């Protein structure tokens, strides 16, 4: 069937491009971090990082277009992948590096969730580290040159991201710009969601463990009951065989009475 062939081709494409796209996401992370961590770097380094960011975004956009062309139902694919489309169109709205960051995070997260070999725990752990890293870099880029800002270095930014994602919020470092506060809202919501996923994952692990223990206990109980029944049946069979053997080997009982044992007189 043509639709089945196209669906198979789409799945095959997604599986083949999964690892290369994740590798490109790491390249994007480095290109995004270098200008922020080293703002005094040579202009050529900044230009190379900007070109790398746009190149990675272009590869992800091309991947979306390829998957769209391989999908059997184009409109259904667009409706079922709204975040992918948003991530492709978002950097075109305004040439901000932060928009390219958000777009790449959306695309990488979508492809990571489709990977069957990535477990939930590993994905959540990677999401926590990634959000903390990108959140720290993004808020440092926004707040470092703010007149009233108090996030001036990477250490302050990482500390702020950690306290914000965990919803602790000590208040010693906080964004003062509008974009920085938008980032704070995003990190808080992400932290709440990730903590909920972690809690649910731990609870599911305990429930599964208890269910396995209960199933093992029930299995052992059933085996013990079956063994008890077999022992009872074996005892009954041994008793029956013993009774039958005793009845066949028992000697004849002589007749009892006054004339017992006397031979009758011959005529």
Mean pLDDT: 75
How big a fraction of the residues is strand? under 5%
Provide the structure class: mainly alpha
Please compute the radius of gyration using only Cα atoms. Answer: 38 Å
What order do the helices and strands follow? HHHHHHHH
Largest sheet: none
Task: Note down, in words, how this protein is organized.
The protein has 267 residues and is mainly alpha-helical. 78% of the residues lie in helices and 0% in strands. α1 (2-37) runs antiparallel to α2 and α6 packs antiparallel against α8. The radius of gyration is 38 Å and the shape is elongated. Residues 262-267 have low confidence and may be disordered.
Write the layout of secondary structure elements.
Elements: H1 2-37, H2 43-70, H3 74-80, H4 82-93, H5 97-114, H6 120-143, H7 154-165, H8 178-249
Helix pairs in contact: 1-2, 1-5, 1-6, 2-4, 2-5, 4-5, 5-6, 6-7, 6-8
Features:
mainly alpha, 267 residues, elongated, single chain
Summarize the structure.
The protein has 267 residues and is mostly helical.
């Amino acid at each position: 069937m043509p639709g089945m062939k196209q669906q198979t081709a789409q799945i095959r494409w997604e599986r083949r491009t999964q690892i290369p796209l994740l590798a490109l996401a790491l390249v994007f992370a480095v290109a995004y971090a270098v200008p922020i961590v080293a703002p005094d770097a040579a202009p050529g380094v900044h230009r190379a990082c900007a070109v790398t960011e746009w190149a990675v975004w272009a590869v992800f956009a091309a991947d979306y277009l390829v998957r769209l062309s391989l999908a059997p139902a184009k409109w259904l694919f667009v409706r079922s992948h709204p975040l992918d489309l948003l991530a492709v169109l978002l950097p075109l709205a305004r040439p901000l590096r932060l928009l390219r960051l958000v777009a790449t995070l959306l695309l990488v997260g979508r492809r990571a969730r489709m990977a069957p070999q990535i477990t939930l725990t590993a994905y959540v752990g990677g999401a926590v580290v990634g959000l903390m890293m990108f959140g720290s870099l993004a808020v440092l880029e926004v707040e470092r040159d703010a007149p009233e800002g108090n996030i001036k270095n990477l250490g302050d930014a990482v500390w702020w991201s950690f306290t914000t994602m965990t919803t602790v919020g000590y208040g010693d470092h906080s964004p003062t710009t509008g974009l920085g506060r938008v980032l704070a809202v995003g990190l808080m919501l992400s932290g709440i969601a990730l903590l909920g996923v972690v809690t649910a994952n731990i609870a599911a692990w305990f429930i599964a463990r208890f269910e396995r223990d209960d199933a093992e206990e029930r299995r052992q109980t059933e085996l013990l009951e079956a063994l008890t029944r077999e022992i009872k049946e074996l005892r009954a069979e041994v008793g029956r065989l013993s009774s039958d053997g005793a009845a066949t080997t028992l000697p004849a009982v002589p007749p009892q009475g006054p004339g017992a044992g006397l031979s009758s007189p011959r005529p």
